[in-house]
Amino acid sequence: MKYFAKIDSVNKKLSDIAEINLGHTFRGAIQADEAGNTIILQAKNINQSGELTYNFVKTTLEKFPIRSLVQHEDLVLSNRGTFRSAIYRGNNTNLIASSSVYLIRVKKDERVKVLPEYLTIYLNSKIGQARLESITSGTLIQSLPKGVLVNLKIPLPSLKNQAIIINLHQNHRARSALYEKKAKIHKNLADALISKLITA
Q1: Residue 89 CA: distances (Å) to CA of 23, 66, 96, 151, 169
Q2: Would you write out the chain's pLDDT as a tens digit for each of its 200 residues?
Q3: Which SS3 state, helix, strand or coil, does residue 200 take?
Q4: DSSP annotation of 111
Q5: Residue 192 resides in a domain
Q6: Would residue 198 count as lying in a domain?
Q7: Beta bridge partners of 41
Q8: Tell me, what CATH number does 103's domain have?
Q9: What helix, strand, coil percent values describe the chain, rounded to 5?
Q10: What total of structural domains would you count in the chain?
Q11: Predicted local confidence at residue 6, as pLDDT
């Protein structure tokens, strides 16, 4: 099968292919403000499947931290505890990342070599997670130091093979969502029947 053809790849440091910045640091807890001028992306917006939940908190900032601005197809990577990555797709002009994540942006001149979605799939893969865990620091709560993260080696297959990997991942995600939906339907039917039999 074509999916199992040999995948030749080169290894590059993350800092060679992407800009890496820590999100904006807030003094104290983020104060939610529905009428606020700034939307905040936090680590808790990244679920275990490596997807973003778009229920972002809004707050008010006097000065906009431009270095923390999240743009279309930027990656975010949680940097404490559990290390999950997700890709942002959207056109918000006032969305910033908090310091609970690293903001990773593939360099423009590197986009001919690496697809942003491939990069987030790699970081969430078993291999990627193992390599991230190998560079963590801390005892009770693990953290990812930026000084080490920038040197993380990223395997880069050809763009064709990156696209195949993305397609495999998307198909798996779609099938998993379908199985989950079917399981919920079966559970609801079983619960309804059990309740009916109990009260009969």
Answers
A1: 17, 18, 13, 26, 17
A2: 445 455 567 899 999 999 999 999 998 899 999 999 999 999 999 998 899 999 999 999 999 999 999 999 999 999 999 999 999 999 999 999 999 999 999 999 998 899 999 999 999 999 999 999 999 987 778 999 999 999 999 999 999 999 999 999 888 877 877 878 888 898 898 888 888 878 87
A3: coil
A4: T
A5: no
A6: no
A7: 97
A8: 3.90.220.20
A9: 40, 25, 40
A10: 1
A11: 53
Q: Residue 58 falls within a domain, yes or no?
A: yes
Question: Side by side, which strands form the sheet with 85-87?
Answer: 18-22, 101-106, 75-78, 85-87
Domain span including residue 105 = 12-157
Say which amino acid occupies 177: A
Distance CA 153, CA 83 (A): 16
Nearest to 26 by CA among 41, 12, 16: 41
Contact 106, 77 (CB under 8 A): no
Residue 192 pairs in a beta bridge with none
Tokens of 46: 């990244």
Q: Which two tokens stand for residue 196?
A: 């009916």
How many residues comprise the chain? 200
Please tell me the predicted confidence (pLDDT) of residue 97. 97
